[in-house]
Specification:
Distance between the termini: 11 Å
CATH topology of the largest domain: Rossmann fold
CATH superfamily of the largest domain: HAD superfamily/HAD-like
Order of helices and strands: EHHHHHEHEHEHEE
Radius of gyration: 19 Å
CATH class of the largest domain: Alpha Beta
Largest sheet: 6 strands, parallel
Helix content: 40-55%
Number of domains: 2
Structural class: alpha/beta
Shape: globular
Number of helices: 8
Length: 246
């Protein structure tokens, strides 16, 4: 095994996005503010879409669960569902909650931004070459992020290095489970039809790596500019760029 956590037996590499393939600043300073600015406009324009009822129901269920748990959520007014969703979505964003309904809504808002040319995906300079190198080596590439699959696909489809989705075989979001839960990584391995030990997971967050390791995956900690400090005694191999992962 190399210092990166990879080995000749590695058949797939699963990557986190924020702080691993993409600068944290892009997510915090570009994507999140864009979604917040366009939230109400999107709701006004799409609250009669075919998929609207299902998304509204997801927000309603999450709001009810938060209220029953004693959270100080904004009130939900049945006669003004659009306003209720806007207020609750803002509340979730303020707390950086990993809400499935919010992630879906953000993904749809970002999709419009990408389509209109107002957004463009961002990746570190070494990402495109690494994707190509790993693919040539016969390794399947996948993404596991708390952002929706839709958001993941648009980010990699619109990078300055071109459409990188041609290299990505699978996308996973929190529909597969929490990123801090070993069962999520076991499900990913099962979906990819690979032994967990044949998969390398790369992330900038130690608890996520701990969960992946508990499921039997190989792991590597990504140290990129702007990343949050992580516990020192974690035991995971460390890289500062994808050039260090053969």
């Amino acid at each position: 095994m190399t210092a990166s956590g990879s080995s000749p037996d590695t058949r797939a590499i699963v990557l986190d996005i924020e702080g691993t393939t993409t600068p944290i600043s892009f997510v915090s300073q570009t994507l999140f503010p864009y979604a917040r600015r366009h939230l109400r406009q999107y709701l006004e324009q799409h609250d009669d879409d075919a998929a609207w009822a299902a998304l509204a129901e997801r927000f309603r269920r999450e709001h009810r669960a938060d209220r029953e748990a004693g959270a100080d959520v904004p009130p939900w007014t049945e006669g003004s569902e659009r306003d209720s969703i806007a207020a609750y979505a803002g509340w979730l964003m303020d707390r950086d909650r990993k809400s499935p309904a919010l992630k879906e809504l953000q993904g749809r808002i970002w999709e419009e931004g990408y389509r209109q040319g107002e957004l463009r995906g961002a990746v570190f300079p070494d990402v495109a070459a690494a994707f190509e190198r790993w693919t040539r080596a016969g390794r399947a590439l996948a993404i596991f992020s708390s952002g929706s699959v839709l958001a993941q696909q648009w980010l990699f489809r619109s990078t300055p290095d071109g459409d990188l989705t041609v290299f990505l075989r699978s996308y996973f979001d929190t529909a597969v489970g929490s990123k801090a839960d070993a069962a999520s990584y076991a499900r990913i391995a099962e979906t990819m039809r690979l032994p967990a030990g044949a998969i390398l997971f790369v992330s900038d967050v130690v608890p996520e790596l701990d969960a992946a390791a508990a499921a039997g995956m190989r792991t590597t900690l990504s140290i990129r500019p702007g990343n949050a400090a992580q516990p020192r005694d974690h035991g995971h191999p460390i890289v500062s760029g994808f050039d260090e992962i053969p």
